[in-house]
Amino acid sequence: MDITPARVILRSMKTDFDIVIAGGGLNGPALALALADAGLSLAVVDARPADLRAGDAFDGRAYALALASQRLLAALGLWDDLAAKAQVIRKVQARQGRPGDGPGPFGLHFDGAEIEEGRLGYMLEDRFLYRALLCAMRGRIDHLPGISVEAQELAPAGIRATLSDGRVLGARLLIGADGRQSGTAARAGIGRVGHDYGQIALVAAVDHELPHEGTAHQYFMPTGPLAILPLPGNRSSIVWSERRENARAIMELPDDDFLAVLRPRFGDFLGAISLAGPRFSYPLNLTLAERYVAPRVALVGDAAHGVHPIAGQGLNLGLRDVAALAEVIVTARRRGEDIGAAQVLARYQQWRRPDATALALGMDGVNALFSNANPVLRAARELGMGLVDAVPPLRRGFMRQAAGLSLDPMPRLLTGQRL
Predict the structure, then answer these.
(1) How far, in Å, CA of 211 to CA of 271, rounded?
(2) Stretch (H or E) spanning 75
(3) Cis omega (within 30 of 0) for bond into 309
(4) Rounded distance, CA 186 to CA 290, Å?
(5) Which DSSP helix (H) or strand (E) runs through 122?
(6) 3-class DSSP state for residue 28?
(7) Residue 153: left (phi > 0), alpha (psi -120 to 50), or beta?
(8) What's phi and psi for 103, nearest 5 deg?
(9) How is residue 293 annotated by DSSP?
C-alpha cells in the first residue's frame, strides 16, 4: 500500500485548525486520531519524511505495549490489523546477573495467568505501528511531513506556529510531541530537570534456536540492564544498557565480535543466537519537563518525560498522556469551553504529571540500585526480589501496574472505549 500523503499546494492549504501537533512519531499521530474522532480539525507537523519508517524490511526495533496501550489502539480502530503482527507477552522474569555467571538465585516471576486478563502485554514492531498510524491519518488529518515548527507566538484566543517552509498555522492549542529536546517546550519557556545516566542503550534483534514461549527477561547487570523481549517466531528484541565507553566500543565491533560480547550476558537458555537485523544505539538520560502546560501549549510523551528504558514504559507513558489529554480536550469542547484555556490544560497536568513523574523516578531509582557491583546491595536486591515474588497479592499488584491497569482515574481510551 502506498502511504505517502499527496503533496499539498501551499497557497491552497488550510491554515487554521483547532489544534496543531508538533511531532509525527507515534504519540502525535495517536493523539491526532483520538481527537479527530471527536470532530476536531488538526494538523500534524512531522519533521521526518512520511515514509521514513514505513518500509517492509525488518529492523528489530519494537515496543513493549502494556495492555492499556493495546486497548487504546483498539479504541482508535487499529488493533484488528495489528494483532496478527504482535507477540503476546505471557510471562516476565527479572533477575540479577553477571556476564558468564547466569542469573542469580532469586528474582521476580510475573505470569499473566495470575491476572484476569491472562496476559501482560504485547511486543509490536515499530514499522507496523508507525505505518498503521500513518495510514489511519490519511484523508482525516492534515499531515505535513518533512516540515518542522520553527517558532510559535500567542495570538488573540489562540497561538500561531511558523513552519520551516514559511507557512504560519493558527490554532487554539499547540501540542508538543517533539521528543526529549522539545522545541515546543523550550519556546514556551518550560524548563527541564534530569541527569545523564552515563549509559547507552544498544538495540538489536536476534534469532535463536529455541522458542521463547512469550516470556520477556530482564537481567540486571552491574553495568546496566539487559532486556530480552519476545517477537513472533524464534526471535527476540534486545535492549542492552551499557556504560557509555563500553557501549561505544561494542557498537564499533563487527557482528561476530558483537555477538561474542553479548552471548555471556544473554546466556544459552534459547540455544544459539545470531543477529537478525541492524544495530542501533541511543544515549540514555532522564529529562522531565518542569511543567506539562503553558499558555496555549501542552506536552505529551518524551517532550514531557524522557525516561530510562527499564521495563519498556516510555511509549506506554506517552500513550497514557495521549488518552488523558484527548479526554480533557474532548470533554471541554462538549461543555463549550475554550480547549486551549489555562483551566482546561491544568486538568491534564493534574491528571498526568504525578503518575508520570513517580514512574520516571521509580525507574531512575531501580537503575541506580541495580547498575553496580556492590556485594552488600547485591545481597539486599536478591532478598528484596525474593520477598516480593513470594507474596502473590504484591506480585499481582506489580503486574497490574506494569500493564497500566491501576491508574485512577483511568482514561476512557485506555479501557478500549471511544471518546
Answers:
(1) 9
(2) helix 67-75
(3) no
(4) 11
(5) strand 121-125
(6) helix
(7) beta
(8) -70, 155
(9) E
Beta-carbon-side half-sphere exposure of residue 171 (alpha carbons within 13 Å): 26
How far apart are alpha carbons 246 and 114 in whole angstroms?
39
Q: What b/e readout covers 348-370, taking b as 16+ CB neighbours within 10 angstroms?
A: bbebbbebbbebbebbbebbeeb
State the DSSP H helix or E strand holding residue 69, giving kind and residue range, or none if neither.
helix 67-75
In tens digits, what is the pLDDT along the chain, a chain of 419 residues? 444 443 333 434 567 999 999 999 999 999 999 999 899 999 999 998 876 555 567 777 899 999 999 999 999 999 999 999 999 999 999 888 777 766 666 788 999 999 888 999 999 999 999 999 999 999 999 999 999 999 999 999 899 999 999 999 999 999 999 999 999 999 999 999 999 999 999 999 999 999 999 999 999 888 889 999 999 999 999 999 999 999 999 999 999 999 999 999 999 999 999 999 899 999 999 999 999 999 999 999 999 999 998 878 899 999 999 999 999 999 999 999 999 999 999 999 999 999 999 989 988 888 888 887 788 777 788 778 877 888 888 888 888 888 888 888 999 999 999 99
Record the cell numbers describing residue 281, joined without a space: 544505539
pTM for this one? 0.92
Q: Which three cell numbers stand for residue 248?
A: 561505544
Grid cell locating 36: 479527530
Parallel, antiparallel or unpaired: strands 273-275 and 192-208: antiparallel
How far apart CA 66 and CA 205 sit, in angstroms, is 20
Backbone angles phi, psi at 287, to 5 degrees: -140, 115
CB 286 within 8 A of CB 307: yes
CA distance 266 to 280: 17
In angstroms, the CA 375 to CA 389 distance is 21
**Do the Cβ atoms of 152 and 160 come closer than 8 Å?**
yes
| Distant-in-sequence, close-in-space partners of 62: CB < 8 Å, separation ≥ 6 | 123, 124, 125, 126, 205, 229, 231, 237
